[in-house]
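Ticket 4471: requesting a sanity check on a complex prediction with pyridoxal-5'-phosphate. Repro inputs:
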Amino acid sequence: MKGFSTTAVHGGEKRRKGEDSITNPIFQTSTYTFENTQEIIEYTQGLKERYEYGRYGNPTVRVAEKKLAALEGAEEAALFVSGMNCITSVLLAMLSRGDHIVLMDECYRKTRYFCQNILPKYGIEVTLVKTGDLKALRESLNKRTRLVISESPTNPYLSVVDFAELAEISKKNKVKVIIDSTLATPYNQRPLEHGIDIVIHSATKYLGGHNDLIGGVVLGNAAFISAIKEFRGALGGIMDPHSAYLLIRGLKSFPLRMERQNKNGMELAQFLAAHPKVRKVYYPGLETHPQCQIAQKQMQGYGGIVSFEIEGDGKKAARFIDHLKLPYIGPSFGGTESMVEQPAIISYYELSQEQRLEIGIKDELIRLALGIEDTVDIVADIKQALDHS
Ligand SMILES: *Cc1c(COP(=O)(O)O)cnc(C)c1O
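Returned structure tokens:
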């Protein structure tokens, strides 16, 4: 493999493209035509590799898949219309009635919803285990357990799970492990190199990187991804060619963006940790982070998300947010623009304060998702908003 940035620019692409274009054309087509009957016969007998219909494949999507596979160090990749469609399709493809799975509890809210409310309707049992509690994980495994699914780092607490240990437990017990690696990206960690079987990303976040597309990708060995693509053809969740074009375009500058976002994350975490109005900072790059050593072992950088608790209550946190001038207020992260949210108000508003506290979401918790702006400008803005809150 060439260097990571070289791979981001050139990986997965043909050197010569249609009409000598330097960019990958957007194949905006629903179907593909055949010269004659003989060509159809050759295609159906597997003698000719080509496309048949847009729900099964598209050349623009294919380039994005190959580029992502090269960056992740995976044999193959499959792209979906969204991160959630990717997660749900992969789980439906892998599981059958009577199976059991283990889900680490600090996870994307809709992943938890799907596992706890929808999978049981199809006779699949789900056990929720505290994130990173490998003893509880071992105890929860039984002979019907098919897979373990976890995020690392998690959202919003940036907890980190030890991939090598997770891989060892899974090999011993013959279960597959899926890591949702959205917050880290292949720039900061490559779980497959640590023995993890399957990696998933919401491409909506850092991979696309410009807040202008929705997508998801699953990466793993060729046989597995081929089976997933069979399912994708039936469930219908392939990414559209225009989003794939935007994703390819976004990936060209992905390593440069990550470099800045890692720097912004680290410097903001250090600034906040030293500020008297901040009670607690969650960032895997800080020495005070409970899994700092695991993070150092398996990550090359710690990303652009910093969560923290402000001294005071939820109202005080809201006042801080409303005084910010640079970050946009809203959900999502990973784009060029910095964003801020108060999880209790935006992502967990359906829960009572008591229910939120049960899963550890305090009202005064703030999630800051840094973009690629200059660090000094972000620090100055955070500082003035803290002074005003
Ligand atoms: C955003 C996100 C998802 C869902 O992805 P979409 O592209 O929004 O469907 C899943 N997991 C994590 C960790 C995410 O941040």
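Notes from triage: The two ends are 49 Å apart (CA to CA). Leaving this open until the requester confirms.
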